[in-house]
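Practice problem: Manganese ABC transporter permease
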Amino acid sequence: MTDALDWTWQYDGVILLTGLLCAVAASLPGNFLVLRRTSLLGDAVSHAVLPGIAAAFLLTHSRTGAVLFVGAVLAGLLTAVLTELIRDIGSVDEGASTGVVFTTLFAAGLVLIVQAADAVDLDPGCVLYGALEDSPLQTVRLFGTEIPRVALTLAGVLLLNLLFVFLFFKELLISSFDPGLATTGGVQCAAGALSADDC
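Answer key — structure tokens:
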């Protein structure tokens, strides 16, 4: 019974490290989304990238990170453009247009994933929810220690987010708490938000 509860760095520790890196990297920009009351945007973009990932896989038949990342970025940009387009053309609230776009793209992504899953060993559950427990399976040797490849990627994302917040902290802070003052002061808020109303 105690063998099942033994904690090891090489398996449990790296899973914990990977989850921690992901949580901290996401919380940095996430705090500003919450302050701006646009936290649905983060949820929308994270769900709406699914069809981009699925389409990239179906077109290239490759599960490498770079290919899937390009598909995800393109789908994320499409989400932002469609949300703004629906908001402007339909004269609806940004939350409503975001909800319409992200549910539609997420559903399209699910259909594409199921289509792809029939041809290869692609588990829709792993694509949707991730598989953090599988992170120790693909490692690289760094300073004499085996580290999951995804942990290195997340460390890079964390460093980029830290750099972004460090460089633009004043602009992020003022645009989050006082959009009117930010606009008066020359801070281009609309570049960081989908709507000029949010900043």
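Discussion: The longest helix spans residues 9-35. Students who identified this feature from the tokens alone can consider the problem solved.
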